[in-house]
Amino acid sequence: MKVPLLDLTRQYEIIRDEIRATAEAVFASQQFILGPKVEELERDIAEYCQCPFAVGVSSGTDALLISLMSAGVGPEDIVVTTPFTFFATAGSITRIGARPLFVDIDPITYNLDPDALEQTIALLDAPRKKRLKAIIPVHLYGQCAEMEPILRLARENNLIVIEDAAQAIGSEYQWDDGRISRAGSMGDYGCFSFFPSKNLGAFGDGGVVTACDKEIFDRLKILRVHGSEPKYYHHVIGGNFRLDALQAAVLTVKLKHLEEWTGKRISNAGRYRKLFEEKRLRHLSLPLEKAGRHVYNQFVVKAEKRDELRAFLSQKGIGTEVYYPVPLHLQQCYRNLGYKPGDFPVCEDAAKKTLALPIFPELTETELAYVVDSISEFFLKK
Ligand SMILES: *Cc1c(COP(=O)(O)O)cnc(C)c1O
After folding, report:
1. Whose CA is nearest to atom 7 of ligand 1?
2. Domain 258-381 is of which CATH architecture?
3. CATH class as words, domain 8-255
4. Res 382: pLDDT
5. CA dihedral sign, ordered 156, 160, 166, 172
6. How confident is the model at residue 282, as a pLDDT?
7. Residue 260 burial by CB count (10 A; 0-12/13-18/19+): exposed, middle or buried?
8. Which of 6, 58, 61, 323 has the most ligand 1 atoms within 8 A of CB, as the residue to mutate?
9. Distance 190 CA to ligand 1 centre (A)
């Protein structure tokens, strides 16, 4: 049996007619740049993410970049983040001229470890503490980072908080007092990606920034069009960070299905748990689910013999992926930052042992059971 890591064609079958109709309406209007379709999506996303404002942008990477620009982060500044994330998180910090400061992760959720964060900030000397401007927590795989302690540290140190929620649209964080907040509504900026493999994927690149503050919202809209306000008058330097009308139209259709698709990802995760528990595989760790809502952009397991397991599953026709094989502090392009192997042991261990299994909403029960059976076959023949 062949089980792909992700099969978007199955989803397209379900929404084909709606997508064709909306795309045809955009073609007929010949309005391709910003305009009413983008505004409609922005209103829908703001409502979905429980934020007052949303600004459609060209990608998740540009969502991060424009947020850092809007926050006034620049050369010589320091931005703290996790080394266990997609490259764009740290890449945008460097592209703006600032310096990423990495902090190790929690071994069970793979998200930024708030205790390590507190220690790292405490150890900074006075000049560097002054240059520390922002923090980018990442809601990895679809589960919110520990926002309560992170926001407390941000407040104490006067840091701007940019949530990298690229993998976490619709994810929910539960506060100590039981209140619930959606990803992207807790920091100053919430950055989302519509890359096709994300839970809400466009037919190409796209992204959005959510914000609670009207001033930030206005500034983001100006930065998105080269800092132009009014047209052809530039008080600030922005870029072309626009979302296409065609992508917005596709996303508006898909957003109406997102709750249903997310529900299926969550129920697939539950099914994996149940089947794996029945197999009692001692050498496999399942992802921890905290209070709140994990939206399972990825279902990531941990095993010592990860590479052998991956090769075995590949022979069985099962698609898997390693997110991410090289921690960011050990990337070639960051040699100049002076990090070395051993600096972030939890992250380095995760990079060696974690593996993402198929979890997409249209995955069938038979396929999922085949994945579990194949993994248990691998461990039993060991
Ligand atoms: C996908 C992703 C991004 C970048 O989004 P693009 O739309 O591909 O530019 C940034 N951060 C994380 C954590 C991501 O998963």
Report:
1. 60
2. Alpha-Beta Complex (3.90)
3. alpha beta
4. 64
5. positive
6. 87
7. exposed
8. 61
9. 12
For residue 271, what pLDDT is reported? 98
Q: Are 182 and 294 in contact (CB under 8 A)?
A: no
Do 288 and 134 meet the contact criterion of CB atoms below 8 Å apart?
no
| Cα atoms in the 13 Å half-sphere on the side-chain side of 295 | 25
**How far does the centroid of ligand 1 lie from the alpha carbon of residue 376, in Å?**
32
Ligand 1 environment, Cβ below 6 A: 59-61, 85-86, 88-89, 138, 164, 166-167, 193, 195, 205, 207
Q: Calculate the CA 115 to chain-centre distance.
A: 22
* Residue 380, both tokens: 């039993």
What are the per-10-residue average pLDDT scores of the chain (382 residues)?
97 97 97 97 98 98 98 97 98 98 97 98 97 98 98 98 98 98 98 98 98 98 96 94 98 98 98 96 93 97 97 98 98 98 98 98 98 96 72
Per-residue pLDDT at 198: 98
Side chain identity, residue 271:
R
How does DSSP classify residue 171?
-
Nearest to 189 by CA among 23, 323, 368, 62: 62
What are the sequence ranges of the domains in the chain?
A: 8-255, 258-381
What distance in Å separates the CA atoms of residue 251 and residue 203, rounded to the nearest whole number? 8
- The Cα 138–Cα 163 span in angstroms is 6
| Torsion angle, alpha carbons of 297, 78, 224, 252, to 10 | 10
Between β-strands 160-164 and 189-193, what pairing exists: parallel, antiparallel or unpaired? parallel
DSSP 206: -
Mutation test residue for ligand 1: of 68, 138, 167, the one with most atoms within 8 Å of CB: 167
Supply the pLDDT for residue 381.
80
Q: Dump the DSSP string for 100-137.
A: EEE--B-TTT-SB-HHHHHHHHHHS-HHHHHHEEEEE-
What is the distance in A from the centroid of ligand 1 to the CA of 1? 31
